[in-house]
Amino acid sequence: DVKPAKGEPTVWFTSVESFAKVLSQRNQALLDLIAKRKPGSLSELEELSGRAKSNLSRTLRTMERYGLVELADGERGAIVPRVRYDRIMLDMPVLST
Prior knowledge:
With 97 residues, this protein is mostly helical. The chain is 42% helix and 10% strand. Strands 1-2 form a two-stranded antiparallel sheet. Strand 1 (69-73) and strand 2 (79-83) form a beta hairpin. The two termini are 13 Å apart.
């Protein structure tokens, strides 16, 4: 059992499949885009990414539940996505106990 130090981020996935789905190559590219371009709204991110706003909203809400992104309030009610981490480490057993 891992016991993170106080203030150390923790993200738990229920399965390898859920980890792979949330952090797919496409979603990793999205996180990279957000971190580098710092869009001021989902509409701006839609333009930058070429992904539909509804798809982005769903994906980012899932990532928010896992603590990977923050969705802050922006100007005129805009939702501003921000990436919370620049690195994720995976710690998982490969043998059953």
